[in-house]
UniProtKB/TrEMBL annotation:
Domain of life: Bacteria
Signal peptide positions (record): none
Occurrences of domain VOC (ranges): 12-141
Organism this protein belongs to: Pedobacter gandavensis
SUPFAM superfamilies associated with the record: Glyoxalase/Bleomycin resistance protein/Dihydroxybiphenyl dioxygenase
Chain segments annotated as transmembrane: none
Protein name: VOC family protein
């Protein structure tokens, strides 16, 4: 495989949409829609309870997420909440140049968020967890704003 940037690419990917399986669909929909500002662009049929969709697609400035309820039989909750919060198998990084604004906004809304700090890879970043414990990283190259 070649790493040359001018080589012809065999697959023309035009987007990336992670799917998150969540324990509480209404809470997750409200977190991403009402707190982070994602638009709810497509869902399963109308739910019996508000925001309790069988699946939902959300979008913000070209960034998409899919949410679906986590099935207890297919993927049960871990033994303890600590087990879930200590997961390190996946995180979502959002490119975001306004880290100080995001920090102040999330903190003013009662979200446990870290102060923006320098990373080992040359970015400034802040860290937060969504309602299911998925790590979210808002980051931007240092010195580029």
């Amino acid at each position: 495989m070649s790493n040359e940037t001018n080589s012809v690419k065999p697959i023309k990917i035009q987007g990336f949409t992670p799917l998150l399986s969540v324990f509480n669909m209404p809470t997750s929909v409200r977190f991403y829609r009402d707190l982070l500002g994602f638009d709810l662009v497509e869902t399963s049929e109308a739910p019996e309870r508000p925001d309790n969709y069988k699946w939902a697609r959300l979008s913000l400035n070209g960034t998409e997420l899919l949410l679906e309820p986590r099935g207890e039989k297919a993927c049960p909750k871990p033994a303890t909440a600590h087990d879930w919060l200590e997961r390190h198998d996946m995180s979502i990084h959002f490119g975001c140049p306004e880290l100080d604004h995001v920090y102040a906004y999330l903190q003013s809304n009662g979200v446990d968020v870290t102060i923006p700090t320098s990373t080992s890879y040359g970015y400034k970043a802040l860290y937060v967890r969504d309602p299911d414990g998925f790590p979210l990283v808002f980051h931007w190259p240092e010195g580029s704003v």
